Protein: Phosphomannomutase/phosphoglucomutase
Amino acid sequence: MFPKPKSVLLPNTYGFESEPMVKPTGFREYDARWLFQKEINLMGIQALGMGLGALIAELGVKQEIVTGHDFRGYSASIKYALISGLMAAGCKVHDIGLAVTPMAYFAQFDLDVPCVAMVTASHNDNGWTGVKMGANRPLTFGPDEMTRLKEIVLNAEFKNTAGGSYQFHENYPARYIADLTGRPKLTRKLKVVAACGNGTAGAFAPQVLEAIGCEVIPLDTELDHTFPKYNPNPEDMEMLHAIRDAVLHHKADVGLGFDGDGDRCGVVDNTGEEIFADKVGVMLARDMSAIHKDAQFIVDVKSTGLFVTDPVLQKQGAKTAYWKTGHSYMKRRTNETGALAGFEKSGHFFFNKPYGRGYDDGLVSAIAICDMLDRAPGKSMADLKDALPKTWSSPTMSPHCADEVKYGVIDKVVKHFEDLQAKGAKIGGQSIRDLVTVNGVRVTVEDGSWGLVRASSNKPELVVVVESPVSEQRMHDMFEMVNSVLRTHPEVGAYNQTI
Structure:
């Protein structure tokens, strides 16, 4: 028998070395994240492996799984503890070694293995660890699988059996790189800054971009798990400013920044200005729908309204549907609908054939951006960005709302707007043109201005985003309208930031 995990154990004690510790909050909506040694120990990781093996069997999936680990000082030891648990549960483990997360997803297809367990803390600070998991390629776990995994692990419902085995795949990254680069070279000579924040992508990104024909300016590509410059997260201003400075100094065509596990790609144009991921998505949708007739796209509800209103996309017959925020939800919806691509505002992009296999890969995104520039000779990244219709967008704003009540508040807010629409009532003198209620409520009025309210997936907060294609004042008007509704609910507290 394996002991039932404890939620707390003190380090440097007999118990810490003799019992599994797994803090329940580490099981998130799509993956698992813990502070190593504070919230989970190696025996806890072993329990996670046993639980994952039991869940795979329960799902009726062949117990065969790909594992890899990111570049952290402790990730390899965590992976081997996970592997020992998986093998105890009867799994055949295919270890690809040090990898970016999409390399593990690729290996599921390349090695014909149904399941994946990638040890990574993604873009989290040092000290964090975690596992991204799936049992139905190219999808990763959603809330149902994560809830069941949590139950199995915390209740020690393990069904360990003989038959587990281990295989290490030597020099596996070469197969992933060959898959990405076995294509015609770019016809346009692009000078590209490849920024990796000393994270895992530094081992692969420069090589891939050079192989497709780019002149690469490497920026913090040396592997160093202390992350001496900044955390590898292309949404953090410190990394973006470093990319900006390198782009301007080297007169580069574009700056591409990769997060800690390489499944996201941030973009800085040739003038040093960051392009938010949803706007990059619109640019890519324009490029792709010019080639593929009646292209379908999926975007998350936080993304710009240009996906629907952009005249170029309309002319090219592109159709876009909005869906729930969250990379696991988005990946699943893009797969189910057979859309050409899915774009999430956080920078997770999902490309189906002929661009990709449906999973999020920062290098596939980077290659798509380079191809877009290659098909636009004489135009810079800034030119392509400036060709988009102007919109005024807010940052993500989050008023406090307790976890216990936030979903109830959202239900009431959704009903409020549904009632207004049913009555034909106007908001600020304009009729409601559209309501999207797949994830909270996104209200769009006649002039294309919109406001979104949803519950945060992982914090005691609501999420508010507004945008207007008309003016900055209309953006403020939409915020005031949304906020006035929220203020009728005393459970909603102060914002972290507002416009």
User: Anything to note?
Assistant: The longest strand covers residues 92-98. The radius of gyration is 23 Å.
